[in-house]
Amino acid sequence: MGKKKGKSSSPAVRGIKTAFGVIGRIFGIFFLILVITGCISATLVTIYVMQFVNADVGVDLRNLNLGYTSILYYTDKETGEERELQRLQNTQNRIWVDLEDIPQMVRDVAIVAEDRRFEEHNGVDWKRTIFSFVNEFLPLTSSRQGGSTLTQQLIKNITSDDGQTFERKIREIFRALNLEKKYTKDDILEAYLNTVNFGSGTYGIQAASNIYFGKDVSELTVPEAASIIAATKSPVYLNPSTNPERNKERRDWIIGEMADTGLITEEEAEAYQAMPVETIKKQLQNDPNSNSQVQSYFVDTVYYEVIDDLCDTYGYERAFASSLLLNSGYHVYTTIDPECQAILDHYFLNPQNMPPVLNSVYPQGAGILTDPYGKVLAICGGTGEKTGALTLNRATSTPQQPGSSIKPLTVYSQGIENNLITWSTMIEDSPFRDKGDGTGWPVNFNGLYLGNITVAEAIQRSTNTVAVKLADRLGPQNLVNFLVDSFGFDLVLEGPVNDVDIAPMALGALSEGVNPIDMVGAFQIFGNGGVYVKPYTYTRVLDSDGNVILEKNTTPKRVLSPETAAVMNRLLISVTDPNTLGTAKQVRFSSQVVGGKTGTTSNDFDHWFIGYSPYYVFGSWLGYDQNTVIQYNVGHYPPLFVFKSIMGDLHANLPLKDFDDGDNCVALPFCTECGNIASSATTTTSIGYYKPSFIPPTCTGNHGEDEEEPKDEEDDKPHSNNGGIIIINGNRSSSGFSYDEEESS
After folding, report:
1. φ, ψ (nearest 5 deg) of residue 549
2. Model-level pTM?
3. Closest by Cα among 549, 541, 538 to 60
4. Residue 548: how many CB atoms within 10 A of its CB?
5. Rounded (5°) CA angle 97-100-104
6. What does the buried/exposed string (b/e) look like for 349-359 if buried means 16 or more CB atoms within 10 Å of the residue's CB?
7. pLDDT digits (tens, 9 = 90+) for 299-358
8. Is residue 165 included in any domain, yes or no?
9. What three-state secondary structure class fits 336?
10. For the chain, how far is it from start to end, CA to CA, in angstroms?
11. How far is CA 32 from CA 35, 254, 588, in A?
C-alpha cells in the first residue's frame, strides 16, 4: 500500500505565509537595527555625559571675595624692584559681606524666592528640573520658579556660562553637583548673595542695600529685602527704582511664599505687603560696560592680553576671565618702561608736539616701542587726549594696510633667504605687465622706470616693480606661509593665493591689513639675528596667594638664518643712510646706526615707518579712522619725524652702539654695472654686504649674460639668475592677472 500524500497548500495560502515571513524578517531586522542604534546612542550619551561628571567651576569660593583688587607692577630699572603701576578698576558696584553679617531673615527671603529646597538637595533639585523640562513642552502651571537651584545660579554668576543650550545645562548640572561636594551650604549661599546681579550695575546684597535704600544689609526690613531679591529674576524688568510696580508684584509673591513656609504669619504677610517700599532714588548711573577711569593704552593692552591668555589657557568665557582679572586680587607683572611710555605720551597725546600736516584735523595714529626681543616697553593707540579706559586702541585693534613696509618681511628677506638675490643683484625696473590701456603695472612712487638697478637701490627707493617681480618669482603662497607661520599674521586674502595676490605680498595691499603692533613685532628679526618673539606686555600673573596663574613663554623662534638677517639689517640701515637714495634718510637723530622702512598706501591714506636700533624697535602709523588723504609738505613725511623725535629722546643718554653681525655677513666691493664682486676689470665699485655662504661671482668686465654663476658654499648646484642681471618681463599669457588696484608707494 503506498504512502498517502498530504494536501498541498493553495497558492493563496502559500503567498500569505511568504508575505508574513518577509514581514517578520523585516521587523526582525528593523528590531535589531533599533537595538544596535539604541546601544550606540546610549554609549554616545554615556560618553557625552561622562565628560561632565567631573566638571569643575575652576574657582575657589573661599577666595571669590570680589572686593580684591588686581594690581599691575613694573620693574624699577635702577633698583630692579617691582613697583606698583596701577590698580585695575572694577566698574561694577560690588561690596563683599560675610554671611554672618547677613541677617537670617534676608537669607530666608533669598531661599524662599529662588530655591525653597536649598537645604535639602545636593546641588540639583531633580523634582523642579524634571517639572520645568515637562512644563516647557506641556504647560502645566505658570509657576514663578524655574528649574535652577541657587547652586546652579551661582555657577552661572561666576562663570558667565549661561547660553540656552542642552550642553550648557548638562555642564551646569554636573558643576553644581561637584560644587556641593566641595563646599557647605553656607559657603554657596554667601557666594550667591555676593555675586548675583541686582540691577543698576549693582552686584551683591550689600551694594544693593546701599544703592536702593541707603542702608546696610543688616538694617533691611522684610519688604525691602523682598524688593531687592525680587530683582534677581530680571534685574531690568523688576528693578526696584525704575520698575516699582512690577517689582511689587514679585515682592508680594515672595512675602506670600514666606507665609506658606511658616517663616512669617499670614497677618505679618498682609502687613508687609501693605507696607510701602520707597527707594532713595540713588539710581547708579554707571554702565557696567563703561569705564570712567582714564588709564593708559599700555594698561588697556595688558588687560586684554591677560584676558586672552586666561581664555586660551583655561578655556574660560571672556566675561568670566574679565571678572577674574578685575576682582580676584591678581598681581600682574608688566613689561612697561614708565620713562619710555612718558616719551610716547608726550608726542601722541599732544598732537601739537607731532610733526605738522596740512589737514585741519590731525590724523589718528599708533606708536609701539619694544626691546629687540618683543618686550613691549611703551604703546600709544591714538593721538590726542585719552578720555577713558579700554577705549579704541589703534595699535592693537585696527588693522591697516602696511604698504611698502611689508617688502622687507616678504620679498627681500625671502629672496635672500632662498638665494634668489644678493645685495647687488641687478633687476630691471620696468613694468611687470601691460594693463591693456598702453600703461604698465605697477608704477613707482615717482612715476619713473630706471632700467637695471641693484636690490639695494630697489629697497632704498622702495621700487614697486622690483618687489612685484620678486614676489612673482618667490610665489605668493610661499610669502603668505612665511608671514602666517613666522608671525601669526591673520591674513585675509580672497580665494586661493595666486598671481592676483602678488600685490598684497609685494606692495602691502592686504584686504584687511595688519595691526601695527604685529608689524613692529615682525621687524625685530632684522636687528636681533633672525629670531622672533611675539610682542608681550606682561611676564607673569600671580593670584592673591602668590600662585602662578600665567607665565609668558618668551623663548625666541628662529624665522630667518643669521646670515639673511645680517644682510637684511644692512639693507635697512642703507634706507636710513643720508649718503644713499634711501626714502628714510631723514630719520637719523645722531650718529647712532638705525635701520627701517617706510610704507605709504594708495592716495596717502596710511603712513608708516618702522625702524630699530640695537636698543629698541619702534614703529608708528598715521591715518584717519575713515580713509582721508594725509596732506604734508614735500620732504616732511610725518612718520619719519615721529621716529626721529621719539627715538632721539630715547637714545639721548645711551652710548652709541652698532649691531653685532659677527661673521654672518661680509662687506665686499661690487661692480656697479653688473652687480658681481669687483675685480681688476671693474671700472666703478660700491660696497655691498653678503651672506658668506652665497657670494656673487667675480666681475669679468663683460657685463653680459655670460657672467659666472654666484658662489654658493652650501652646495655645488648652479643658481640661474642669482648673480649678475635678472631680466623679468611682464605680459606673460600665463599670469592670469586681473588685479588692478592702485599700488602702494
Report:
1. -95, -45
2. 0.70
3. 549
4. 9
5. 105
6. bebeebbebee
7. 999 999 999 999 999 988 887 888 889 878 899 999 999 999 999 999 999 999 999 999
8. yes
9. coil
10. 117
11. 5, 54, 83
Please give the Cα distance from 606 to 628 (Å, whole number): 9
- For residue 684, tell me if it sits in a domain: no
Tens-place pLDDT, residues 641-662:
999 999 999 999 999 999 998 8
Residue carrying C-alpha cell 607731532 = 354
641 falls within a domain: no
Residue 536 β-bridge partners: 375
Least Cα distance to 188 among 120, 124, 123 occurs for 123
Each residue's pLDDT tens digit, 113-155: 988 888 888 878 777 667 666 655 555 555 544 568 888 888 8
Cα torsion for 166, 169, 174, 175, to the nearest 10°?
A: 140
Question: What does the alpha-carbon distance between residue 455 and residue 571 come to, in Å, rounded to a whole number?
Answer: 9
Domain boundaries, position 239: 95-274
Upper half-sphere CA count for residue 574 (Cβ side, 13 Å): 24
At 731 the three-state DSSP class reads: coil
Cβ atoms of residues 105 and 224 within 8 Å: no
Q: Confidence band (pLDDT; 50, 70, 90) for 704? A: low
What does 91-119 look like in DSSP terms, one character per residue?
-SEE----GGGS-HHHHHHHHHHH-TTTT
Q: Which amino acid is at 409?
A: L
User: What does the alpha-carbon distance between residue 625 and residue 364 come to, in Å, rounded to a whole number?
Assistant: 7
> Could you tell me the CATH number of the domain that includes residue 151?
1.10.3810.10
β partners of residue 609: 598, 620
Which pLDDT belongs to residue 317?
Answer: 85
- Locate the DSSP E strands across 572-652: 595-600, 607-612, 617-623
pLDDT tens digits along 152-211: 888 887 776 655 566 656 777 888 888 888 889 999 999 899 888 898 778 889 889 988
| Residue 388: count of CB within 10 angstroms of its CB | 12
- Cβ-count burial 200-210 (b if 16+ within 10 Å, e if not): bbbbbbbbbbb
Is residue 582 in a domain?
Answer: no
The full length of the chain comes to: 745
Which cell goes with 464?
614697486
In sequence order, the β-bridge partners of residue 20 are none
Residues 6+ apart with CB under 8 A from 518: 487, 488, 489, 535
Give the three-state DSSP class for 687.
strand
Provide the number of structural domains found in the chain.
1
How many Å is the Cα radius of gyration of the chain? 36
Round to whole Å and give the CA distance between 150 and 184: 13
What are 477-521's pLDDT values in tens digits?
899 999 999 999 987 655 556 655 788 899 998 878 899 999 999
Coil, strand, or helix at residue 558? strand
Q: Could you read off the pLDDT of 541-580 as tens digits, one per residue?
A: 999 889 999 999 999 999 999 999 999 999 999 999 999 9
Q: How much is the mean pLDDT over the chain?
A: 84
User: What is the distance between the alpha carbons of residues 743 and 506, in angstroms, rounded to a whole number?
Assistant: 9
- φ, ψ of residue 587 to 5 degrees: the values are -80, -15
Residue partners of 150: CB distance under 8 A and separation at least 6: 110, 111, 114, 115, 118, 188, 189, 192
Say if CB 213 and CB 279 are below 8 A apart: yes
